[in-house]
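Regression test attached.
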Amino acid sequence: MSETQENKDKRKIRSAKKMRQIMTEYYVEAKTARDNNRLIAWITSGGPVEPLIAMDIIPVYPENYGAMIGASKMGGDLCQKAEEMGYSGDLCSYARADIACSTVDGGPIGGLPKPDMLVCCNNICGTVLKWYEIQARYYNIPLFIFDTPFCHTEYSREARKYVRRQVDEYIQFLENVSKKKIDYDRMNEVGKLSVEGQRLWQTILDTTMNKPSPMTAFDAFFFLALIVTLRGQQIVIDFYQELLAEMQERVKNKISAITNERYRLLWDNLPIWYRLKWLSDTFAAHDACLVADTYTSAWCGSMKYINENDFLDTMAEGYTRIYLNIGVDEMAKTVFEMIDKYDVHGLVMHSNRSCKPYSLGQYDIQKMVQEQKGVPCLMIESHMIDERSFSESQTLTRIDAFMEMLKQKVG
Amino acid sequence: MKGLNDLYQAVADPWEYARKMKSGGKPVIGYFCSYTPDEIIYASGAHPMRLFGTNGEISAADAHLQAYSCSLVRGALENVLRGNLDFLDGTVFPHTCDSIQRLSDIWRLNTNFRFFADVVLPVKLDTDSAREYMVDVLRKFRRELAVGLGLTISDGDLEKSIECYNSIRISLKQIYELHSNDPAVISSRDLYTIVKASMIMDRGYLAARLPEIVDALKKGEFATDVSGKKRLILTGSICDHPDIYDILEKSGGVVVWDDLCTGSRYFDGLIANGPDPIERIATRYTERLICPAKHFSLTQRGENIVRIAREHKADGVIFLLLKFCDPHDFDYPYMKEFLDKEQIPNMLLEIEDQLPAEGQLLTRFETFMHML
C-alpha cells in the first residue's frame, strides 16, 4: 500500500497553497478593517452576503472560524469554556466555541475581528438566532434577522412576499448602520459574480463524477471556504477557474484523489473537522473515496431559483429554499440524485449532535436510501468541532465493518 | 380535589377524552406548542388537543430520532407510532424549534391522518413585515383547515371562538392570580391539572367551567395548607411532570407563577376587539410573551423573568429545562445573569423523559430551599 513520495506529490492539489494565501489575506484584511475605516458584519454561513459586498462591508463568518477551530483541534477547550459560562454541552459546538471565543480571543488566529453589526439568516437552523442574540448582547451592536420560512413542502406565496420585503429591510438596515447608500448597479454586478462563483463551484464538485475522482469530499470541505466567505467577489471566480483547470487536468491525466479508488461514497452532513485527515486516510485504506457530499453543494444547490439578471428579486427564493430549509423528503430526493449522479456505492451519514436540522430525519433518509436505492449506509456520531465527543475506536470499528460489508456486496 | 374530578379525569387519560369527543362527532386535531392558533381549529368545529410526550418507554421512535432529541419530540412520536393517537383526524405543527420542525417531516412521512398542516410562523415578531406575514399565514391555515376537514369557518365562527378563548384565558389568569395572592387557595397540583386540562378538554365546556372554579376558589373550596412554604417561579418549556409540584411542596416550596409553555405563556394576552378576527388572533400571537424559539427583543425574556419574580414576590426561580432543548439552553445563562444581578436565587433542573428518583429530587430542592 505504501506510495512513493513522487506519486504522493503528484496527487497533491497544487491550488491548495493559493487558497491558503487568499484566506490569510482575507483574515488580515478583516483584522485590520478598523485601520482602514471599514465596517465588519458577522454573518451566518447561509446568509445573503451579496449586499454586504456591494456596500464594501467585510463579511466575517463565525462558522468558517468554527471550522478552523475544529481543524486546529481547539474546539474542545473552547466548548468547555462555554459550558463553564453556563451553556449546555448538548448545544451546537460552533455556537459554543464562538461564544467562548469572543470572551478570550481564542482559536487559531486569536479571535475574530469585532463586529459592527450582525446578520443572522435562519435558513440553516434556529440555533443561529439564539447564537446571534447572545453576540448582539455581548457586543451591544445591531442585529438583523433575515427570517426565511421553512419550506417543508412548499415555498408559499405568503413566504415569498415576506422574504422579498425583508431584502429591502436588510438593505435599509445596512444603509442605516453604515450611513451610506447602496449602489444598485454595483449590487447587480455582485449578484452576477455570486451566481458565477456558485456555478463554477458546482462545476468543480461535478468533476468528481469522473472515475477515478480527481478530488474527495474532504478536499471540497477545504476549498468550500471561498464560496462561503467571498461569494460575490471576482477573486472567487479567478481562483475557482484555476482550481477547475487543475481538476480537469487531473481527470485528463487520470490522477486520482486516492491511490486506488474502488469504492465511491457519499458523505452527509457537516464534516467532523478535527478528524478530516484521519477519516480520509481510514477510508482510503479501504480503497474508498468520498467523492461527494450534501454539505458543500448547499452553497449552489438553490441556484436554480436565482436569476442573475434580477438578483435582489430572486435571491429571496434562493436563500429560502436551500438544502437545510426544506423537508426531509425533499432532502432525500437530493440524496437520491447525488447517488445516481456520482455513482456511489454507499452513504456515510454523520449524525451530528451539533446540528439537529441536518441530523434529525437522517434515519428516515437512510431507510429510504437502503430500501429504494439498495445503497448501504454507515452512521457515525459526533459533535462537529468538539473533539471530546468523538470515539475513534468505536468509529473505526464501524467503518471497518461497513467497508467489509460493502466489499462483499460490490466485490 | 373532589371538585375537579372532571379535569383530573381528562388529564389522567386525554386519549380517552379525545375518543369521546370524536364519537360525539367532532374531528380531533392534535397540535404542538402554544403558538398553534388553536382558536382557528376550535372555530372550525373540530376539537383542538395539545399533544405531549410519554411517560412510558420510548422504543419505536428510536428508529426515527436520535437519542439527542428532546423527550417531548421523541415521546410524541412514540405515541403516534404505537397507535395511541389513532383518534386523530389530523395534526398541526407550528414553526418553533429545529426539533419540532423535523418532527413535523418525520410525522408527515410516517403517519396517515386525513389532515396535516405546517403553520410556518415568522420567527421574529418585531417588524411590520413579520406581523403581516403572521396574518397571512393564519389566513392560509384557515383556508387549509376548512378545505382539509370539509368544514366552513365563518367570521362568526371565529368571533365565537375568540370569545371562548378570551374567557378561558381570563379565568386561568384569575386562578393564577388568586393562587399567587394566597397559595393556600389551591394546591399546585390542582393548578397544574386545571391548566393542562385547558389544553385537552372541550373549550366551550372550559369557558363555562373555569369561572365556576374561580368562584369555588374564592369560597375556599380547594383550600390547602402551604404555611411557611417558599414562593417559587418555574420557567422553561413544558412541565408535564405533575409529581414535581408535589415534591416541591414536600421540600418546602410552592409554585406561585410560571413562565412555561404549558402555563402562563398559554394564557398571556387576550384577543382584542376589532373588525378582522384573523388579524386580531395574529396580533395576540405576536404580542404575547415569547418562547425562546421566537425573537422579539434581545432582553425580553430576561426582563420578564425578573418582573415575574418581583411581581409575585418570589423567593426563588427554578429553571426546568428539557434535556436537548436548544432554545431554552441558549437563553439560560443570560436569564440567570438577569436574576443574579437582582439577587434572585435560582437553580437549574434538567429533565429527561423520566424524572430523577424522588429522593434525589427532594434533596436538590431542599438544598435550594435552605438557601432562600
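Expected vs. actual: identical. Chain A has a mean pLDDT of 96.
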